[in-house]
Amino acid sequence: MSKKLNILGNVWLDAYDLIRKTPRLLLPLSIVAFLEALWLEILCFSLQPPLKTFFLPPIKRFFKEVSLHYPAFLFTVPTLFGYGQLLIYVFMGGFLTAVTIVMAASLSEGHPLTFGAAWKKASKRFLALIFISFFMVFLLAFVSGREISFLKAGFEFAGRGALRNLLGLLMKVFRYLNFLIAVAIQTFVFFIFPLLVLENKKFFRAFGEGILFGGKHFGRAFLLLLFPTLFYGPIWFLKGRISLLVQKTLYPEVIVWVLGVGIVATLLVDTFIAVSATLFFLRIRHEKSA
Amino acid sequence: MKKALSLYLVLLLGVYGVLTTLGSKDTSKNIYVTEARFWKAKALSQKIVVNPDSTPPPLFEKSRKQFESIIKDYSDKPMLVKESNLSIAGLLIYEKKYQEARNFLSKVRKDFPSDKAFSARSQFLVGFSYEREGNWEAALKEYRLLRDRYPESQLGLEIPLYIARHDLKTDSKKGSESYEAAADYYRQLIQANPKTPLQFFAMSYLLGGYEEQKRWEKALEVLREIVMTYPRLSRSYFPRIDAYSIRLKQPEKAVAIYQSFIQSYPDHKDAALFRKRMERLKTSRVRKNVS
How large a percentage of chain B has pLDDT more than 90? Predict the structure, then answer.
């Protein structure tokens, strides 16, 4: 058991070492970070001329009138930013994660590929990667938070007593641990990426094998993705307390700063996840072939 | 990687520069930036006002300068100019520069002679400067001037109660007399301005005065007057009619109001609802009698 878990420590250390020695591993996902930063910047100016010509009508249509004014608009920025993030992830995020995987695999195997070569290799599976990214986003949006809805429904029907108290407690716990479900989903879906770009498996085969791989090594793979995700915790914490933060600082732009720091944190965390998951995948494959 | 980072930075700064330049081409049309500047200035001044005695003088200076720059940049927006002027006067008062505040107010009042709401607020600040200085007599003189010159303004209507609250803090007998004086004043307004917004507001302040004194019987009388005169607004007042009659342990008082209302307005859209309330209160009366 401990031998099985030791692999995680080694993978994390090797991934850290690899990124430290080869910072260009950050390059693919830095494009995502750049696009997100650009989107955030555009949002910040979206109610000022000349951008307000395009942005004002939809914001007016989908949000309250008060959202068109300062500082209320800044409170809608995280929602609008989230929509853009989803689009960026679906069309670029998954693909660039695959580019990182190709670069990390080639580096660990001693015949490093340039960013351009890795891009070229991953781009052959571009459509499949977009589909997998969309699938992941869809699952995250669909499943995440559902357990709270179920618990809430149960809570309302439970009447008074121990069951209601238990469900109430679970609801509180799940609100904080909701991200565990997101990590679990990623554990099942993530390994489809290396199967597509490293082993050139056909789409449906990669899809099935990826999910099976995640399921077979669920415990370790889950921990593998969970640990780096925890580094994003402070940003989640701040995002959850954004109103309080604005109240304390009297500086509503702090919302944009938190999102900005989140972009950088996501770049580091996601690159680390991509590299360590690739190393993990390769080691399991080597163990199997040995 | 360094090259890529530099490129991103240059691009992001470039976009920032272009959007800032395009946005500031016509400052007066950039409402969002105007709102942001005013909000920030107001937020700082409000922070100072919460605890003026422990605020260092440079912060007062900084806050005043923010408003001064708004006045300078948005001279074509009278509302912003007025609000900024009033905020500067308020800051001077809290900084204990009372005479300077009064001089400033008398100067800016001349810029908007026809704006009664602004004049009323300036007049209030003159009184407030004396009050903060510890000269209540002078403050009272200014507050009475405010009441007489701008009876229709919100502050003009509020000021009799404001005076009563002040008097109550220093002397309960004097406070009661001031509340009575305020009630007389509101009564005069109610009689002199039938079926006008001013009459409605005067009734509301009269009600407010009785509520502050916890004179529920008097409050019920005013509530009856309000719902009978303004039946369209009646629905929002009925919870208070219930509450005060229950506090008095006389639910029949509320029932009487409901009965008169239904008699006078049998076709009112909420008549059925009021009948229900009446029945409920009658039951509660029975319960009370039984107990």
Answer: 65
Q: Which of A27, A33, A71 comes nearest B39 by C-beta?
A: A71
**Block residue for tokens 């997101």:** A182
What's the angle, vertex CA A278, arms to CA A276 and CA A281, rounded to 5? 110
Q: Is B122 exposed, middle or buried (0-12, 13-18, 19+ CB in 10 A)?
A: buried
User: Could you tell me if B121 and B105 are in contact, meaning their C-beta atoms sit under 8 angstroms apart?
Assistant: no
Distance, CA of B228 to CA of B190 (rounded, Å):
14
Minimal CA separation from A153 to chain B, in Å: 32
Say how many residues make up chain A: 290
Question: Is residue B252 classed exposed, middle or buried when 0-12, 13-18 and 19+ CB atoms within 10 A define those classes?
Answer: middle
Gap between the Cα atoms of B196 and B206, Å rounded: 15
Query: How does pLDDT run along chain B (291 residues), one tens digit per residue?
Result: 788 889 999 999 999 999 988 887 766 667 888 889 999 999 999 999 999 998 999 999 999 999 999 999 888 889 999 999 999 999 999 999 999 999 999 999 888 888 999 999 999 999 999 999 999 999 999 999 999 999 999 999 999 999 999 999 988 899 999 999 999 999 999 999 998 999 999 999 999 999 999 999 999 999 999 999 999 888 889 889 989 998 998 888 998 998 899 899 988 888 888 888 888 877 765 445 433
Residue of chain B whose alpha carbon sits nearest to that of A51: B19
Name the amino acid, one letter, at B275.
R
CA–CA distance, A289 with A287 (Å, rounded to integer): 6
In total, chain B counts a number of residues equal to 291
CA distance to A287, B94, B127, B163, B180, per residue, from B141 (Å): 93, 20, 8, 11, 19
Query: Token pair for residue B291?
Result: 């107990």
Tokens (6 digits) for A220: 């370790």
Closest residue in chain B to residue A24, using alpha carbons only: B1
The count of other CB atoms within 10 Å of the CB of residue B271 is 16
pLDDT tens digits along B36-58: 999 999 999 999 999 999 899 99
Which residue from A30, A41, A69 is facing B16, i.e. has the nearest CB? A41
- Give CA A286 to chain center in angstroms: 27
Give the integer Cα–Cα distance in Å for B13 and B276: 66
